[in-house]
Automatic annotation (TrEMBL):
Name of this chain's protein: FkbM family methyltransferase
PANTHER family, sorted: NODULATION PROTEIN, SLL1456 PROTEIN-RELATED
GO biological process terms held by the UniProt record: methylation
Domain of life: Bacteria
Lineage: Bacteria, Pseudomonadati, Pseudomonadota, Gammaproteobacteria, Chromatiales
Keywords, comma-separated and alphabetical: Methyltransferase, Transferase
One Pfam entry name: Methyltransf_21
Gene Ontology molecular-function annotations: O-methyltransferase activity
InterPro entries for this protein: FkbM_Methyltransferase (IPR053188), FkbM_mtfrase (IPR006342), SAM-dependent_MTases_sf (IPR029063)
Taxonomic source organism: Abyssibacter profundi
Tagged with keyword Methyltransferase: yes
Length: 250
């Protein structure tokens, strides 16, 4: 019996990613030493932003995105935010010797507080919003397995306006908490040329803002869509989520 076409495609994509990771020395080291695989799917997109001098990476997890950003923007300062201790320790083991990378062990939101995070069976799917049934159905293994109390800060609590060298990139991958995280960045948004955010078309986390709401919110603040990438579809071929690139209107 042969494998389904979707499984064959999945195997092929994973093999290509592994080959790409192993071909870059820093990525290979991060994978072998910390089990952190660079997010290679972002490299072509980040190439258009390679002149960025400052990157804010909200929802850093183990450093997957930061590895891609460092490869594409070798001279940029990177400030990453990750509130969960386990992934944060992995991140520090990957970037502990990089003087241009700083980790803040907090989430970003509209106010400074301690809050409950819903921990997923896959920690990169954990969220400050309850994990919905649709999320665990579409992505098996991401159901909630517990909760924990974490620190939440506004971006301005951790990064000063003078620290953000232009052109700058703001990246968010926060599992449904995108709008609240953006509200926590609002006082510094004017300093960013690019915003790169994962947005959903269906409710994966209870109460999350949909892509249309985030697009409208950013449009009101002077950002327009520059591209939509890495589209994920459900079994019925309906769009589930994608990575959106926004650029400041000149």
């Amino acid at each position: 019996m042969g494998y389904p076409a979707s499984a064959v495609i999945g195997f092929a994509n994973r093999f290509r990613k592994l080959a790409h990771v192993l071909a870059v020395p820093q990525w290979r080291s991060a994978l072998l030493q910390a089990g952190t695989a660079a997010s290679t799917e972002h490299v072509a997109i980040l190439g258009a932003m390679s002149n960025c001098r400052f990157v804010v990476d909200i929802g850093a997890n183990r450093g997957q995105f930061a590895l891609a950003a460092r490869h594409c923007m070798p001279s940029a300062e990177i400030v990453s935010f990750e509130p969960l201790p386990g992934p944060a320790e992995k991140f520090k083991s990957v970037f502990g010797n990089d003087p241009k990378v700083r980790l803040v062990e907090s989430a970003v939101g509209p106010e400074r507080q301690n809050a409950e995070i819903h921990i997923s069976g896959r920690d990169d799917s954990s969220s400050l919003l309850p994990i919905g049934e649709t999320q665990s159905t579409l992505f098996p293994g991401t159901e909630a397995v517990g909760t924990s109390t974490i620190s939440v800060v506004r971006l301005c609590d951790a990064v000063s306006i003078d620290e953000i060298n232009s052109p700058a990139l703001l990246k968010l991958d926060v599992q449904g908490f995108e709008l609240q995280a953006l509200e926590g960045c609002e006082s510094l948004l004017e300093r960013f040329e690019w915003i790169y955010a994962e947005c959903s078309f269906v409710e994966l986390y209870t109460g999350q803002a949909m892509a249309g709401e985030i697009i409208a919110w950013l449009s009101e603040r002077g950002f327009e869509i520059s591209g939509v990438h890495n589209l994920t579809q459900g079994s019925n071929n309906c769009a589930v989520q994608a990575d959106f690139v926004f650029r400041k209107v000149r």
